[in-house]
Amino acid sequence: MFKNLISFPARAVTKTRFAVGAATAFVAAAVMVASPMAALATESETEKKLHEVTTQVGSEGVAIVLAILGGLVALIAAIIIIPKGIAMIKRFI
What we know:
It is a single chain. The chain is mainly alpha-helical and 93 residues long. It has 2 domains: 1-42; 44-93. It is built from 3 helices and no strands.
């Protein structure tokens, strides 16, 4: 069973269909990388404003996510750590 898993990538690479697919993917990736560079040469005012708004919304989203994670950490502390601390104090009293 494991021998087939190991030899599968070697057989897949040698197939013509895989080679054509890889070449097509490479060309598509090259075109996709080159297109935004040409489009960035002429940036309109609308695109600049949109970039500013998305940057601001993204930074606010990060702040919200961090606040939620902080709340989860506090909840875990309240549920797990505080009762264990109370039990330890009761043991010594």
